[in-house]
Structure formats: C-alpha cells, structure tokens
Amino acid sequence: MLLFSNNREVWLRRAEAFSDSRSGVAVLAAIAFADSSVLPVLPDLLLIPMLLLKPDRTFSLTATCAVASSTGALVGYGIGHVAWASLAETLVKMYGQADNFQRYQRLVEDWGLWIIIAKSFTPLPFKFIAIAAGVASMDLLTFTLQP
Length: 147
Fold this sequence. Notes:
The chain is an all-alpha fold. The protein has helices spanning 8-20, 22-37, 44-53, 58-94, 98-119, 126-135, 140-145. It has one domain (8-145). It contains seven helices and no strands.
C-alpha cells in the first residue's frame, strides 16, 4: 500500500485505524501541546476526522486537546519568562530601552486579559501572546484563567 493515495476508502481506513489506536490520542495531545507552545501545527486537522469517525469519544478527545493546549500555553509563558530573565533583559538595558519595556509591562498588567481576548479575533498564533505574556511577567492566574 502506498503512503499517499487518491483513494478515499484508503484514507478512511487509515483515519479509522489511527482513531482507534492509543497512539492516535497521544499524537493529538502532542500536536495540541506543540501548537500552543512553539510549533505552528494545527490539531484541528487531526481532531476533526477523529471526531467524525468516533462521535462517542467527543468529550475525551476535546478534553485531551484542551488540556494539552493549556499545558502548551503555560510552557510558552515559561519560555517567555525564562528567556526574558536569561537574555532579553540584558539586551533591553544594553540598547537603552528599559523605560519602554517598563511601559510595556504596565500595559500588559493593566490590559493583559483584554489583549488576550482581542487576540482571539486575529489570525495571530496564540503562542506569540503566551510568550509575550511570559516576557511581561503577566499575572499567571489571569493568564491561566482567561476565557
């Protein structure tokens, strides 16, 4: 059997086998995690066929995506926070932009929740907002519990 096929039945069988396998859910979780933290991969491309083939697993599959995506967002926040502490703070001071950065931090402190909500209406990947929130040291509770 060829890896790529134009036959619809072949694709359907492969998708069904993947949906039934334990590794299918793990791969879905890994993709959702990566999408929220560092890589531009869409979990929807895997989630939608899995939901269509296994509607009885809707709750577990969507919960898996939500938990993995939320964990990935926290990792993205951590990347921004650690990168700021280890490297970027020195660069900002070196270029004399410490005052501007403090303004940015105040802006995120005052409007962070609304920035995240407004971002949801843009095509900007969430990972950028997660990393930027970590850089600005946005309140982690606000970042985590945002709608």
